[in-house]
Amino acid sequence: MIESVGASAYRVPTPVPEADGTLAWDATTIVVVTARADGRTGLGWTYTDASCADLVNGMLAGVVVGTNQLDVRSGWHAMQRAVRNVGRPGLAASALSAVDIALWDLAARSVELPLATLLGRVRDRAEVFVDANGAYSVGQAVRVGQRLAEWDVTWFEEPVSSDDLPGLAHVRARTSPDVAAGEYGYDLPYFARMVGAAAVDCVQVDVTRCGGYTEWARIAAVAAAHNRDVSAHCAPNLSAHIAVATPNFRHIEWFADHDRIESEFFTGVLDPGGGTVAPGEAPGHGMSLRHDTADRHRLR
Predict the structure, then answer these.
(1) In this structure, are 141 and 89 located in the same domain?
(2) Going by DSSP bridges, is the β-strand pair 40-47/24-37 parallel, antiparallel, or unpaired?
(3) Where are the alpha helices (DSSP H) in the chain?
């Protein structure tokens, strides 16, 4: 029986200012969720605003505490109902994701299985790739994509905004590299619309935003039904466990900012040396929070 669920928020400065194609930042906020039952602790997290912790503590914890720790999907559906009136996309999806991840970790630890095994492992390792963040117009993206083909580039991530499905489909039809998008998707219908519009060759799923491991599995099934691959966006040490349980999985984005934070905050993180990661045999995802380190960055 789940005895408690709680969340804390931490703000970690970057060593130097960082930026991608559309945004710059000098710190990253991580919200860490713990779920406890029978002397065991499950751990999940998401990268979002600190107010996400209040949503977990004030709304989601109450609907899963007291439920069977092995019935994760039931808890997921209860949380899905609980956030209906606050809106599922965005902050609520991130909160739901972090709790779902913690519950799956707790379930795996409860039966002393690696998380990847409980999720249905189908491969030993997952490839690691490194990343336009939607910065181009459609015309610019087509021109860039055509030049990329000359250099044998095979991956064109978010050439235009992930919300511009006609634009993505236009770029995909006129360029050779595989088009990928979806890292800002918060639920299954978002990805169903994306693959239904023939907008991408590969959907990018962020396990800390999409609804956790439970929703990831449903998204991957929809992608497979459309003969599309799945790629993991960020949170690499969480993504790897569901990645090896996804038959149509392609690779993990190994984001330096998240890797730095996860290596600092948690024991048992994965090693991407050689370009692949392999989840181990420890129960759950095998990671634990370094409380002394994390508390130096605590917001709430």
Answers:
(1) no
(2) antiparallel
(3) 51-55, 61-64, 72-82, 91-110, 115-119, 138-150, 165-174, 188-196, 212-225, 236-243, 256-265, 291-295
Mean pLDDT, range 49-53, rounded to an integer: 95
Mean pLDDT of 266-279: 87
Do the beta carbons of residue 248 and residue 220 sit within 8 Å? Answer: yes
User: What span, in angstroms and rounded, lies between the C-alpha atoms of 90 and 97?
Assistant: 11
| For residues 113-134, average pLDDT | 75
> 20 is in which domain, residue-wise?
4-112+290-295
Please tell me the distance from the alpha carbon of residue 131 to that of residue 133, in angstroms, as a whole number. Answer: 9
Give yes or no: residues 45 and 107 share one domain.
yes
pLDDT at position 122 is 84
Over 90: is that where the pLDDT of 227 sits?
yes
* CA–CA dist 221, 239 (Å, integer): 16
**Which pLDDT does position 145 carry in this prediction?**
81
The verdict on 145 and 193 lying in the same domain is: yes
Q: Is 256 found in the same domain as 127?
A: yes
Look at residue 300 and tell me if it is in a domain. Answer: no
Check whether residue 180 and residue 201 sit in a common domain. yes
SS3 content of the chain, % helix, strand, coil (to 5): 40, 25, 35
DSSP 287: -
How far the first Cα of the chain sits from its last, in Å, is 26
